[in-house]
Every structure is written in C-alpha cells, then in structure tokens.
Amino acid sequence: MRKGAAFPTAWLGLVLAAIQSPALADGSKTPEDRVLFNRDVRPILSDTCFHCHGFDKTSRKAGLRLDLREEAVRETKNGVVPIVPGDPSKSAILERVFSTDPDEVMPPPKAHKDLTPVQKE
Questions:
Q1: How would you label 64-80 residue by residue, b for 16+ Cβ within 10 Å and e otherwise?
Q2: At 76, phi and psi to the nearest 5?
Q3: b/e string for 41-63 if b means 16 or more Cβ within 10 A?
Q4: What angle do CA 63, 48, 115 make, to 5 degrees?
Q5: Residue pLDDT, tens place only, 25-64
Q6: Which backbone phi and psi does 64 adopt, to 5 degrees?
C-alpha cells in the first residue's frame, strides 16, 4: 500500500461491482436499495475521473482509461492493476482515492474535483 493510504475496502466493491446495499432484515435487497453502477457510480467517475482517465486519448493521463471496464481491470505498463474485481485491497484506485499524500491522491488537488465522504462511501 502507498504511503498515506488508508481506506475501507468496501468502497471499491461498491464502486466496481455495484454491490447491493443495504440489506433488509431478511438479507434480501430491494431494487431501490441497490447501488447501480450507471445510476450511482458512473456519474461520480464521469465528473471526477473521466477528464483525465476517459475516452479522450489526448487528455488521458498515465495511459489509464476508467470509462471502459476491460481497460480499468487491465494491468498497466507499470504493473499496477487499477481495479481488481472482487479484491478491493489489491486495487490501486482505492489506494489513490483514500491517500492523504498530495502526490498520490486522486483526483489530484490541482483538479479541484475533491470527492466527498459520501461519494467515497
């Protein structure tokens, strides 16, 4: 883990797999309770990440594309896997989002696109 990174591993599962939450008393979930990727997660990524990690290759940073799943889960040239489905603790994106190191945190401070605690959850 990178210096200054401290994060709840549940966040990535929620973001990446759109895990359903919260569960009802009987363990089931209603459609309204489910976190849906396109409804709940994609807008956050679109607003805070896609400018530098989206479809436009002229503005893409670090060769990382997060708008396509197959790209987001692929190992980078540096040997880093941005998103490891099913294993948030090995996902570099979480380290970056929860880092307190200004040189590591994403989105970077100069982007003026800070994630709120609710967005992180």
A1: bbbbeeeebeeeeeeee
A2: -80, 175
A3: beebbeebbbebbbeeeeebeee
A4: 125
A5: 556 566 677 777 788 888 999 999 999 999 999 999 988 9
A6: -105, 125
